[in-house]
Amino acid sequence: MATRLNFKDFLIGISNKPLRILDASIKNSAYIKLDLSEENEGLRHVDVSSSKKLETYITSHIQKHAASVAFGGYNEARGIYKRSTYFNDSPEKERNIHLGVDLWHAVNTPIYVPLDATVHSFKNNMNFGDYGPTIILKHQIKDVEFYTLYGHLSLASIENVKVNQVFKQGDLLGTLGDAKVNGDYPPHLHFQIIRDLQNFNGDYPGVCSKTDLDFYLDNCPDPNVLLKLEG
What whole-number distance in Å separates Cα of residue 139 and Cα of residue 147? Predict the structure, then answer.
């Protein structure tokens, strides 16, 4: 069994090629990095509490770079979570550091399974600013068990899914939801790798506080080790 110390190396070694969650015909060159951190000066004039205004900003960013998909966000401190008490119930442990990679694309975009898997759990996480419809997959490779989480899906994505359902690499998992169901965000996928699910079902923290960051960065490595969208 891989230890936490070499889990990231294990993930890197799964595939030499990028694993795809969106349409495989979308090349790496069509993905553009998106900075939603508190340090991004361009966001200071954007009302990030409005999903429509944030979507306008993201769409403009994609178009400006002649891209198809915006991505990023791992280990990124964001101001967007200040709008929801779900992330700020304790001033001492404000949760604002993002633990997955977001893929920003159009509503109803198909989402595909990157690796053979079974369904561990699913849930509609309905807190304001939460994931909305969410699916967690369990993977078993070379005696190593780990999980991947897919948040901000459409309601249809969880209507017929079943626990222990088998998916093969490349199978259709679901589609992206809109702001009405996805926690009030522009359409996007939150993709996260989780080593130890800690008895969660259909949910797992995708945003943490600075005080807990070391644990979560260890337990949730950068998904880019699988997606390989940047060097």
Answer: 6
What would the mean pLDDT of 57-77 be, rounded to a whole number?
97
- Domain membership of residue 86 (yes or no) is yes
Q: Which runs of E-coded beta strand occur in the chain?
A: 31-33, 69-72, 76-77, 95-98, 101-104, 110-112, 117-125, 132-141, 144-151, 166-167, 172-175, 188-194, 207-209
Percentage, residues of the chain above pLDDT 70: 96
Question: What CATH number should be reported for the domain holding residue 122?
Answer: 2.70.70.10
Q: How many residues does the chain have?
A: 231
Distance CA 160, CA 44 (A): 41
CA quadruple 155, 199, 192, 111: dihedral, nearest 10: -30
Q: From residue 184, give the alpha-carbon distance in Å to each of 121, 132, 153, 187, 188.
A: 22, 9, 12, 9, 11
Residue-level pLDDT at 172: 98
pTM score of the predicted model: 0.94
Structure tokens at 220: 């949730």
Neighbours of 12 (CB within 10 A): 14
Count of domains observed in the chain? 1
